[in-house]
Amino acid sequence: MGFSIGIVGKPSAGKTSFTNAACMTDFKVGSYPFTTIDANVGVTHVRTKCACIEFDVDDNPQNSICIDGVRLIPIKLIDVAGLVPGAHKGRGMGNKFLDDLRQADVLIHIVDTSGALDSEGQEVESGSYDPSEDVKFLETEINEWILGIIEKDWRRITGRIRAEKVKLDELLLERLSGLKINRTHILRAIRVADLKAEAADKWDDEDLRRFVLELQRVAKPIIIAANKIDRPGAEENYQRLKKTFPEYLVIPVSALAEKVLKDLEKKDIIKYIPGNNDFEVLQTDKLSDGEMGQLDKIRKQILKKYDGTGVQNVLNTAVFDYLKMIAVYPVHDASSLTDSEGNVLPDVFLIPEGSTAKEFAGHIHTDLMEGFIHAIDARTKMRISEKHVLKDGDVIKIVSAKGAK
């Protein structure tokens, strides 16, 4: 897992509940600010159609899970400390929050859509707070954080551009690489902001802020998880969020419903695959009338209305739509689709869209890439070169002078 997803938001908005539901962990949850002080790190999964369906084989995954043809691939989640206005100045757990944020490639902003918490995470009358304010201040805090890092050396940066003819992206990369911001992010932000890198010494404050805004959107993209969607007033706020922030994807979520379903699935009381919009009750005798009523409410008011709890939808969107990852299966035998021990379709890896066969070999092991000869497509049984661009769902055998997978 070479990338990670950051779970962000104000205190008590449901970040840890989301993480627990996604990862089936038991991190501490509280109805008071800063329950999370140190980042909670967990492993959850994204789902994709398993290759076993197309090849009509019974697989036995080793690094992932397959349930009824749905392959669940592990990914890393970071639930960071709650954020309050002024975090970039060190207010609240601000410094800790921003330090944790460095590790994330994409951010899921958990918003309390019920409007029952103010900007500090304190309880107010339900519906009296506009959750749109949360989105505004989160974006502001991240932008001010990045801006502060750049402004600190801006005079020296522009001076070197004039005196030494050094490129702006090279100088910014030196300062921002620790934030997992790369050259592509920087160049794209300059282009989208309609600025000229060679004229950076003439940028005014507004230009610099415009660049930082675009840099945040490309390097730390945000998905809004409209949590507590089944609470009174949440539907109206959800629609308001979509209208107010057309540049963001807003997904309705009930982290609590997801946790309830997964807890019951773990006990074999129901059958539930994360991301499905329904479940099957296996042991009605293990459920009280009240619990059956709760499940019926989850089914009608959440699963059917919003096509799922939203938790899996958010995760899949982050990985496949925002980070542009694809799933590729390496095998030792392209005919039997097995590894060297006979496991059928044992592993699947998430790699960036546009990756070549040789780059995929390096993702598995450096030796495979260094000794790469060719690969074999399990579907066509044809050889493919090191420059062959892989597609989502590909199953390939890598032939290498230093070993084969």
Give descriptors for this structure.
about 400 residues; seven-stranded mixed sheet; 3 domains; Ubiquitin-like (UB roll); 14 strands; single chain; five-stranded mixed sheet; flat; alpha/beta; Rossmann fold; about 40% helix; 14 helices; Helicase, Ruva Protein, domain 3
Quick overview:
The chain is α/β, with parallel strands linked by helices.
List the helices and strands and how they pair.
Layout: E1 4-8, H1 15-23, E2 40-49, H2 51-55, E3 65-67, E4 70-79, H3 94-101, E5 106-112, H4 132-151, H5 154-164, H6 168-176, H7 183-192, H8 205-219, E6 222-227, H9 234-244, E7 249-252, H10 255-266, E8 270-271, E9 280-281, H11 289-306, H12 311-322, E10 325-331, E11 349-352, H13 357-364, H14 366-370, E12 372-377, E13 383-384, E14 395-400
Parallel strand pairs: 1-4, 1-5, 5-6, 6-7, 10-14
Antiparallel strand pairs: 2-4, 3-4, 8-9, 10-11, 12-13, 12-14
How far the N terminus sits from the C terminus, by CA atoms, comes to 19 Å
Number of domains: 3
Biggest sheet statistics: 7 strands, mixed
CATH topology of the largest domain: Rossmann fold
Name of the CATH homologous superfamily of the largest domain? P-loop containing nucleotide triphosphate hydrolases
Average pLDDT rating = 89
The proportion of strand residues reads 15-25%
CATH architectural arrangement of the largest domain = 3-Layer(aba) Sandwich
- What share of the residues lie within helices? 25-40%
The radius of gyration is 23 Å
CATH class of the largest domain: Alpha Beta
Provide a count of the helices: 14
What is the global morphology? flat
Strands, total number: 14
Please mark out the parts with pLDDT under 50 across 5 or more consecutive residues, or reply none. 27-37
> What class, by secondary structure content?
alpha/beta
Q: What is the N-to-C order of secondary-structure elements (H for helix, E for strand)?
A: EHEHEEHEHHHHHEHEHEEHHEEHHEEE
